[in-house]
Amino acid sequence: MTSDKGAAGGRAGGSAAALRLVGAVDAAGVPVEVRCDNGRITSVRRGAPAGPVVERTAGGQVTTVELSGMTLLPALAEPHAHIDKAYTADRYVNATGDLDGAIAASHRCFAERTAADIAADARRALGAYLAKGCLSVRTHVAIGPVMGLRSMEGVRSAVADYAGLVDVQVVAHVAPPVHGRAGRANLALLREAIAMGATQVGGTPYRDDDPVAETAALVEAAAAAEVPLDLHTDETLDPGCLTVVELARVVQARRFPFAVTASHCVSLGVQDEADQRRVAGLLAEAGVAVVSLPQTNLYLQGRGTPRATPRGLTALGALRAAGCRVAAGGDNVQDPFNPMGRADPLEAASLLVTAGHLDTAAAFALVSEGAREVMGLEPVALVEGSPADLVAVPGAGLREVVAEGDARRVVVRRGEVVRPSRAAHPTARAREVAHV
Ligand SMILES: [Zn+2]
Which tens digit of pLDDT belongs to each residue from 344-359? Predict the structure, then answer.
């Protein structure tokens, strides 16, 4: 496979120079100054005005970046994306606006596009995530009889171009069924996708005629491949469809040893409160994490209910109260499942405040530390010893930052500014200071 070097605009290999970030405030609006060495945060000073720009180090360099007017936060993470169909909304229109319309349009999308087409759109998506300060992305990649492995090929090419800038987890999102005789061809494709580099098994057991058999087959496929599982689960307002309970039962009975994520869980949100608490308890006990996807659920769900239209979000309150691991993602970016979408976790956080009724800090946690936890990544915080993966966003504190969603961001990965180029940014100026 060839890689289009330069498409991502340069790689971050970790900087030998120290980095000093001055002039910003933290989430609470308190002035903060951060120093990073060798990819880690080595000092955090709060409440102090910025010191002199020139520092002396032992023969090295210090790059100082002024971030006045900006809020410095841990880098964002996207636990649920579909970069294999991003930016296709105008070419493949969802005629009905609901989930069936999205699936029909996406079948045309996957039937017609080449691996090169898919790679081009996936590159654009990864570039957009990076510019927003999102350094880790878990993307589902569709495989099945319509598209074969073309989406895997396209995404793999795009991911290679962003190596060292965006860490990508690829979920092989296989079409049902994978169980029984009818599932043999799809199961074979799933195995090939894992051989091509997919690191998780995905699927949609709730859309199969036999969700119990499909769930069992997907769990077995992941166990055989020794990879985690991330399933699209109960993306429906039908309260009678609650396959996430079967998922929890199987992973416990099977003692499945890898991480398990249930994405969407829309129908859990329309159960009565006692059932929400009961199921949330089961998921916490089984170690099943839940990813809420407000944009796509708000767009697709509830179209048959014009009066008091339901919101389609999962039972965030019950899940968090039960101690479940919960994260939130953006899901679709301008495709038939959601014609909006900015590849920006702050958009999901904003919707979790307005539509999910979380406070701003809790909403932000679901797209930062919560997302990282569900993705199995090391925690990041503005504390000494943390990985220096950070994003500065214009604004005077977390609430304003989430509300404004300003796209002019400074992105730091492993202690090095990776976006934007220093000369291009209107509010941040970086100066490299040579030392004697
Ligand atoms: Zn999805």
Answer: 999 999 999 999 999 9
